[in-house]
Every structure is written in C-alpha cells, then in structure tokens.
Description:
This protein has 354 residues and is mainly β. It folds into 2 domains: 1-31; 40-352, YVTN repeat-like/Quinoprotein amine dehydrogenase (Methylamine Dehydrogenase, Chain H, 7 Propeller). Helix content is 8%, strand content 50%. The longest helix is centred in the N-terminal third of the chain and has 28 residues, at 5-32. The radius of gyration is 23 Å and the shape is globular.
Amino acid sequence: xxxxxxxxxxxxxxxxxxxxxxxxxxxxxxxxxxxxxxxxxxxxxxxxxxxxxxxxxxxxxxxxxxxxxxxxxxxxxxxxxxxxxxxxxxxxxxxxxxxxxxxxxxxxxxxxxxxxxxxxxxxxxxxxxxxxxxxxxxxxxxxxxxxxxxxxxxxxxxxxxxxxxxxxxxxxxxxxxxxxxxxxxxxxxxxxxxxxxxxxxxxxxxxxxxxxxxxxxxxxxxxxxxxxxxxxxxxxxxxxxxxxxxxxxxxxxxxxxxxxxxxxxxxxxxxxxxxxxxxxxxxxxxxxxxxxxxxxxxxxxxxxxxxxxxxxxxxxxxxxxxxxxxxxxxxxxxxxxxxxxxxxxxxxxxxxxx
Length: 354
C-alpha cells in the first residue's frame, strides 16, 4: 500500500517533535545534575596570634564562630569584620549552637571543660567539667543534650542543657574525633585510633554499634546526609568513606586530598566537601544517588585550610588558615610539634559559586 504524501508529512512532523522533546529532556537532566564551579570569592584578614581548630556558621545571625587557641572569635559574615571574642579559655576546639538561638557551647580542651555562653552578649554562663581534652562536640536536637568527645580519655561527656549538669560519661573504644547527630536520637563519631565509627543512643547513653571504616584510615572529619542515611568520613590516607547509617556498611569510597580535618554536606545541592590542609585544597563531591559519589572539582585554597563551616542556605563555604614558620624543636611530650603560626596572618577564605 502506498503512503499518501500528507501522511508522510504528518509522520515527519511527529518525528521532529519527538526528537525535540528528547533533546529538551536531555538538556533538563543535564541542567539538574550540573554542578557549579567553586572559587575563593573573598579573603577576610582577621589577624591576631595563635592557632585554630573548628569553626561553626550561624546563618540566621550572620555569624561565624572560630575556635582560636585560648578564645573564640566571632565574625560578621556580612562584612567579614571581627564582632567580638570570648577569652580566658585554656584551648578551644569546637563550637555548637542550640536550636532556640540563645546558647552556644565550646569544648575547651585546655581546661577539660565545656563552656556555655550567651549568644547575644558573648558571655560565658557556665563551665561544665568534662573528660581529658574535650574536642569534637555536637548538640543533639532530639534530646537537647550536648555530647563532648574527650580526645585523651576515650570517652564522651553528656550534658543536660536545661541544667548544665553532666548526665553520663560514655566509655569509647578509642580516641574520638568529630561527631554528628541524625536528629532522631543517634550520635555518630569517628574513632580515629581504631579507624571505626561508633553509634550512640542519645537517650540511653549506650554505644549501639561499632563499624570498621576500611579502607579508610585515621578518620577525622564527619558529615551526615540525614535524608539518605549516609555518613561521610574523611581519612588521612586520602579517602572519604560513605557509610550507611542503618547498617554500618561502607557503600562507596571517594578519593580526596591530603590532610583532611573536616567534612561538610550541602543537602540542597547534594554536595559533599573535604577540606585538605596539607594540600591546600577543597574536594567537591557530587552525590548522584545514595550509592554513587563522584569528585567534580578540586579547588586550590591555601596550605593549612583544614577545617571549614558551611552556610546551608547559600552553599557558601568558610575556611581558615594562616602563614607558617618553622616548627619548634621536638620534645618527648611533643615529638611532632606543629609549625608556628606567624602573627597577624590569620585569614578566613570565603568560597562560593558567584
């Protein structure tokens, strides 16, 4: 049977429309999975003396808290200026904030205490005894408790934020590092000395699971994707381990840079970050699915930029570093001393996609 010319033309039109629709769908899919390129947008010169550890962003108040030796510095993220300092501490490590916008907590490892402070006045309101060298710290919204992880006594101190009293000290199987909360009453923490992760029930104070991280070695920074039940542990053998929070299985490993000390997750853009101090790089990892992760950018930052914070509303990353001099002589107590920080060179690097 011969095809009529009109039928042929109609069929051709349908093919063209279908092809166009496929191209549009393909373009939409590509746009959906497109990852923006990050770069260092600004450098805020803060200056001052001393080293640093973790930093915490408070997007609602437009503040950045930085653990800075014997004090905490507070930066205005609109201007990059120093708003104030909380001093008189022994050796600060981390800062966490409660969910009602009023109180913050600092792990003061030098004095073996956790300091509670008023976020409006920046005044310390309580000093709560902890174990030896409280380092990693997390606020658990499900229980309104603070968990401080004691680096030299292999334990976690649990604090009731209503009374600022210690509820329990939880023994751990090794040296703890950075913790996260899933918001449902589970706390996860890297055990650096054993290359493991522990899961703690925030209600019963019990360790409910201990999971190996192999091939990840010496984990430090930790982040969580609560929606997809994934942990992101960055390790000193230049590997990020992705762990199922329900089973403890390592579902993926991702190459990262050298000397990571922090990991952050951006839930809006489904990106994972590793700040690598030895390389002076930021590894950007795209989460395509709960089991598929691919590095999409290695951004050059600066040597020493090993810890970071993220503003989840904008995706802005904050890193800190300084210029370094030679290390002091090694001693029996400190066989591998840190390099000296040159006075006045401390900066905040603001990383974004604009």
